[in-house]
Design brief:
29% of the residues lie in helices and 17% in strands. It starts with a strand and ends in a 15-residue tail after the last strand. The strands form 4 sheets. The chain has a 9-stranded mixed β-sheet. Mean pLDDT is 91; it is low at 1-35. It contains 15 helices and 17 strands. A hairpin with a 5-residue loop joins strand 4 and strand 5. It is globular. Bound molecules: iron/sulfur cluster. Iron/sulfur cluster binds next to loops. This is L-lysine 2,3-aminomutase. Its cofactor is pyridoxal 5'-phosphate. GO terms for molecular function: 4 iron, 4 sulfur cluster binding; catalytic activity; metal ion binding. Keywords: 4Fe-4S, Iron, Iron-sulfur, Metal-binding, Pyridoxal phosphate, S-adenosyl-L-methionine.
């Protein structure tokens, strides 16, 4: 057994060393958890011979991530079967599917980046209907006409930035944008205006992960005593070096008025093996900051992002339980997405899987009014219906809040607390007195969901 000032580590039978906060004979060993070790990545032809040790190695995951469109096309050539089903019961060819992806990427606001972990969880025998494929790989055939009220910065974050990279909207909370890079790029990203590489349709407003850009943000927070709550996001804090994550955490904890820090990362969802990799220090840094905060009486948490139960593999479960064993608080923020999770059964299964792995289901968001991804947005009536059927099926403290992040920067409101909702026009109106006084904020359902809608646009 190795020991260090903050954590004790135990070598286990999994071929990996995992971090355990403390051990005693009275604790149930995690090895007894009923998780199957199906080597799901071997379904992908090019990874048929990849061993568990290789697959769980963070460096291998990064080296084999798809970083651009051409590597995605090569991957699809070698992975997608020659014939695949369409939603209408007919079939199409691999070549037609790839042509559909190529045309889709020409109009997408987000660039391509995907980890082997997430690629391995896609059902490639039916990619048209797969809920993970829908989130990351656009298809021209699936595009829907944009609502005229859509924007790339739909939450008006740039307008609420007193310092570049810092969004101050709520009285006591700021958003600290540490980087604009992520391990994967989601099609529906709310920060399409800044996150990832530029695309054919969007030039990005980037945030580089450099101390000189963070200094003015630290100064602003220290000079604004009403700010007690910091969300460190991006991009994804998973893409910070461990030393950078530690530096940001330590600097923020030194500021007297800071009481709560949340690190936002999709890493647990899209590359969970990093948490388990004994050669990588990102989760050590997170655990150290969490422990340092606890010693100071301040809370530090990880906020992650799962949208569908298919994203949770046995590797995910082990990584989540490892964080739990190390006393790291983990909460999840789901985005409600058409054809992915906008049905009661899927949402219930997702929430239960998260809860059973000690990931607190915190928010389910109505999709933001971002340009270029209307096929994934849902009408408000969906979130209200799902909320009413989920509530009561699991403990209240594991029931997420179903919210709309109001366009124009009104902050989050419970979806069911609209002032008015006209289902014929799809317009709902909200007020957020605690954030923006009596200003009315309108959310607009996607055009395709309105009664009598007919498509007028071709791409
Ligand atoms: S991980 Fe988060 S910040 Fe990055 S692309 Fe996805 S939604 Fe956007």
């Amino acid at each position: 057994m190795l020991s260090c000032p903050l954590t004790k580590r135990v070598s286990l039978q999994w071929g990996l060393r995992r971090r355990l906060h403390s051990t005693s004979s009275s604790q149930a060993p995690l090895e007894s958890l009923p998780v199957a070790q199906f080597e799901y990545w071997r379904k992908v032809p090019s990874w048929r011979d990849i061993t568990e040790t290789q697959f769980l190695d963070y460096k291998w995951q990064m080296k084999n991530s798809l970083q651009n469109a051409s590597s995605l096309f090569a991957f699809l050539e070698s992975t997608v079967p020659s014939t695949i089903p369409l939603a209408n019961g007919q079939a199409t060819t691999r070549e037609d599917f790839i042509a559909d992806v190529k045309a889709g990427l020409q109009h997408a606001p987000m660039a391509t980046r995907l980890t082997p972990h997430i690629l391995s969880l896609i059902g490639w025998n039916d990619p048209y209907s797969d809920p993970i494929r829908r989130q990351f790989i656009p298809l021209a055939s699936g595009f829907q006409q944009d609502h005229p009220r859509l924007q790339l910065d739909s939450l008006s974050e740039s307008r609420d930035s007193p310092v570049k990279g810092l969004v101050h909207r709520y009285p006591d909370k700021v958003l600290f944008l540490a980087t604009s890079v992520c391990p994967v790029y989601c099609r529906f990203c709310t920060r399409s205006y800044s996150v990832g590489m530029k695309t054919e349709t969007v030039t990005k407003k980037r945030f580089l992960p450099l101390r000189k850009y963070w200094e003015p943000m630290f100064d602003y927070i220290a000079q604004t005593p009403t700010v007690t709550d910091i969300v460190v996001s991006g991009g994804d804090t998973f893409y910070l070096e461990p030393a950078q994550l530690r530096e940001i955490g330590q600097e923020l904890l030194k500021i007297r008025n800071v009481r709560r820090i949340r690190f936002a990362s999709k890493g647990l969802s899209v590359c969970p093996s990093r948490i388990l990799d004994p050669n990588d220090r990102w989760s050590d840094a997170l655990i150290e900051i969490s422990e340092l905060g606890r010693k100071q009486g301040k809370s530090v948490a990880l906020h992650t992002h799962f949208n569908h139960p298919q994203e949770i593999s046995w590797v995910t479960e082990r990584a989540a339980q490892t964080l739990f064993q190390n006393a790291v608080t983990v909460r999840n923020q789901t985005v409600l997405l058409n054809g992915v999770n906008n049905d009661v059964d899927t949402m219930k299964r997702l929430i239960r899987r998260l809860a059973d792995n000690n990931i607190q289901p915190y928010y389910v968001y109505q999709g933001d009014m971002v340009q270029g991804v209307e096929d994934l947005r849902t009408p408000l009536r969906d979130i209200i219906h799902i909320e009413s059927h989920v509530r009561g099926t699991i403990a209240g403290f594991m029931t997420p809040s179903f919210v709309v992040d109001l366009p124009g920067g009104g902050g989050k409101r419970l979806a069911a607390t609209f002032e008015s909702y006209d289902k014929n026009t799809g317009v709902s109106k909200f007020v957020a007195p605690g954030v923006k006084g009596n200003t009315v904020h309108e959310y607009h359902d996607p055009l395709w969901s309105l009664p009598g809608y007919t498509e007028t646009r071709q791409i």
